[in-house]
Design a protein that fits this description.
It contains 4 helices and 6 strands; from the N terminus they run βββαβαβαβα. It has 130 residues and is α/β, with parallel strands linked by helices. The protein has one domain: Transcription Regulator spoIIAA, CATH 3.30.750. A 6-stranded mixed beta sheet has the order 1-2-3-4-5-6, sandwiched between helices. α2 packs across α3.
């Protein structure tokens, strides 16, 4: 992404602001704790004014080498996080990330639009169409 206006690192991701209200989250490759995820969402709210206007988030899972726990998946699906995330487009490239996101969608049922893609271009186009 060439138009990055802001770059922030959280305990679980590198966040790139592509344009106002549109974030690219490059997930780090480790297994995340619930505490790290709560801190991540807090940083997103603060750094990108997400309490004022929810974010469109393109989530790249290429570096993911471990799945996430049910507690973590359920936390991200909470209606409270719809205040931060208007929609999530997940880019998956491995069986681990595919399994993790499918579990998230099927059992945690996020309260905001969420879709899986195999490339950044389609994910970005979908987010911009919302």
């Amino acid at each position: 992404m060439s138009n990055i206006t802001k770059l922030i690192r959280t305990p679980i991701a590198e966040l790139e602001e592509i344009e106002e209200g549109l974030i690219h989250a490059n997930m780090l490759g480790h297994r995340y704790t619930l505490g790290q995820c709560i801190e991540h969402m807090s940083i997103m709210r603060k750094e990108f004014n997400a309490d004022v206007k929810p974010l469109l988030v393109m989530v790249s899972m290429e570096s993911m080498r471990a799945g996430s726990s049910k507690k973590v998946r359920d936390y991200f699906a909470q209606p409270e996080n719809a205040r931060t995330n208007k929609a999530n487009a997940f880019i998956i490239s491995s069986s681990i990330s595919k399994i993790t996101i499918n579990l998230f969608l099927k059992f945690s049922k996020p309260s905001y639009p969420t879709k899986i893609f195999s490339n950044k271009e389609d994910a970005l186009a979908w987010l911009k169409s919302l």
